Amino acid sequence: RDGAEFSYVEMGSGMGLGLCLLAAAYPEGQFVGIDFHPSHIAHSQWLVRELGLTNVSFYEADFVELATPGACWPFDSELQADYVVAHGILSWISPSVREALYRLIGAMLRPGGAFYCSYNTFPGWLDRTPFKVLTDLEHQRLGAGNLLAAIDHATSKLNRLLQASILLSQALPSLGRNLQSLESSQQINYLYGEYGHKYWQPFYVTEVHQELMAHKLTYAASASLPNNHPSLLPAPLAALLAEESDPTIHQLLFDLAINQSFRRDLFVKGPLPLSTTAQQQQLSQLRLRATAVPPVEADAAIRAARIDTNLGIICDDSGRIQQIEALLAQEPATLYEIHLALSIPPEDLLFYTSLLLHTGRVGLDRGEAGEAATDSCRAVNRRMMELMQGGHNLGFLAAPSTGHGAQPFNLVDVFALEALQQGLDESILSSCVLIGLQASGVELRGSDGALLTDPEQCLQQIQCDVIRFRDQTLPRLVQLGIVEPLAPAASGNHIPQMS
User: Fold this and answer.
1) Long-range pairs for 364-368 at CB < 8 Å and ≥24 separation?
2) 76, 81, 92: which is closest to 37 by C-alpha?
3) What are residue 494's phi and psi, to 5 degrees?
4) Cβ(267)–Cβ(107) under 8 Å?
5) What does the alpha-carbon distance between residue 451 and residue 359 come to, in Å, rounded to a whole number?
6) CA-wise closest residue to 319 among 346, 342, 340, 341
7) Helices (H), 331-454
8) Which of 97, 145, 223, 276 has its CA 20 to 30 A from that of 197?
9) No. of H helices and E strands in the chain?
10) Does 467 score more than 50 pLDDT?
11) Cα separation of 315 and 496, whole Å?
12) What is the mean pLDDT of the chain?
């Protein structure tokens, strides 16, 4: 956050987009991506060249081979990383590969370094376990190229079983809802990625935590910030958790209490606990900034005060969330400055800002480091938009002011931004965006997912999308330093609201 140099390794880096965006937002960092699939690495290396990045590199490698004693690493063999991450891969690799991954993390991380790991968990996945087992059997019968057919067969048979067996529906009450979501899913890549792996395996939290402890990695906290506030649970559950002194049992009870299905865990190699005074001092200096325009209308403000978490919906009736957002909308501020301005007790302030960070409506302000990264980051974002116009499915931009590397951005946004930057008259702006989309071969769909073929309907849809971009997305992009503010003539362009 302060611009100091660091090293960051992603295990299972996929197509490389996320790591490239982080490298753009953090020019002071050195990033390494490792993946088993050569097609992933080829795409990643192509993207590095296209974006002109010099602080990120990708390597095709096998975790088991890398973890073999005396193995020659294709990257710096003396690497001592500050951060290592593994997004989701734990749930889809074999036990031997998982063990090799743990050994590598232990070898790569410097003392005091942090490891982030996300993975599917029980008990939240219990209802989908019989579906996975049946899908695997159908897949074996139908052949390797028929996963979608296997999913359809398994879904159909389980639905019939649920209708015929009261015992099954009572034992697995969420199975029916999960099957309905699979039937309505249009995300083919998700279905392949989630259910097409031979070694698919959710875990109880105790398994992962104990395995990582054996490799000198200690659980520190959840990256899902509300999970660090178990007092949000109903009083009897919160009291039960407060009584449990064993940290691993505590986390298991927590997962059971909320039917946890996915964890985002942070571990440390050699934790260095801070004194209470040092902890308070560091937290007081933490600087936040708004990442979205706070709602003005009363109804929108009420909705914004309802925070959706996996502990349930948290309602802020105190008005504190609205006050904090309004303050940060004026300029970034430290927690201490917010405390002085709003007289919110420190513990309450930490709670409310955790919720706001969870929603993404505020972010950590990078200050001078973010300002130093702005020009190069914007150049990368411009090239990203050019690649999107050329038909590449990328869909995100990098934010230098917060370091957040995943601001969603679609092709409609690309053409809308270009049209607004050119100062096009409101009478032709939406038409020009539509022409650009049609030239790119984009099919327009309504809110119900149905294909739009009527030209007037298409134009109305685009006009709605352009208004959304102008009023919601563009202010966020400017706040985050992702794009330059529009020139006065362009920003003054008026698009009438639709009835």
Assistant:
1) 364/1, 364/286, 364/287, 364/288, 364/289, 364/402, 364/403, 365/287, 365/288, 365/289, 365/332, 365/401, 365/402, 366/1, 366/3, 366/400, 366/401, 366/402, 366/403, 367/1, 367/2, 367/287, 367/332, 368/3
2) 92
3) -105, 125
4) no
5) 31
6) 342
7) 335-342, 346-359, 367-389, 411-421, 426-439
8) 223
9) 23, 14
10) yes
11) 34
12) 88
State residue 328 phi and psi, 5-degree precision.
Answer: -70, -20
Sign of CA dihedral 51, 357, 289, 483: positive
User: What was the pLDDT predicted at 424?
Assistant: 78
Q: Residue range 135-148: average pLDDT? A: 88
Task: Give, in order, the Cα–Cα distances in Å from 383 to each of 293, 311, 340, 395, 406.
Answer: 26, 40, 42, 12, 15
**Of the ranges 76-80, 145-149, 174-178, 330-334, which is most confident?**
330-334
Compare 415 and 195 and report the one with higher pLDDT.
Answer: 415
Q: Has residue 256 got a pLDDT over 50?
A: yes
pTM recorded for the entire structure: 0.89
Are 255 and 202 in contact by the 8 Å Cβ rule? The answer is no
Contact 266, 223 (CB under 8 A): yes
Distance CA 327, CA 497 (A): 28
Residue 496: asked if its preceding bond is cis (omega within 30°), the reply is no
Side-chain-side CA neighbours of 153 within 13 Å: the count stands at 15
CA distances from 466 to 394, 411, 419 (A): 20, 11, 10
Two tokens at 84?
Answer: 């290592």
Cα angle 223, 477, 14 (rounded to 5 degrees) comes to 50
- Which of 270-279's residues contact partners 24+ apart within 8 Å by CB, and which partners? 270/111, 270/112, 270/216, 270/218, 271/218, 271/220, 272/112
Confidence band (pLDDT; 50, 70, 90) for 496?
very low
H/E run at residue 10: strand 6-11
Locate tokens 């990098």: which residue?
Answer: 398
452: which 2 tokens? 């739009």
Per the CB < 8 A criterion, the answer to whether 220 and 271 are in contact is yes
Cβ-contact 148, 188 below 8 angstroms: yes
Q: Do residues 6 and 28 lie in contact, with contact meaning Cβ atoms separated by under 8 Å? A: yes
Q: Find the helix or strand (DSSP H, E) in which 286 lies.
A: none
E strands within 269-346? Answer: 287-290, 306-309, 312-315, 333-334
Q: Where are the beta strands (DSSP E) in 55-195?
A: 56-60, 81-87, 109-120
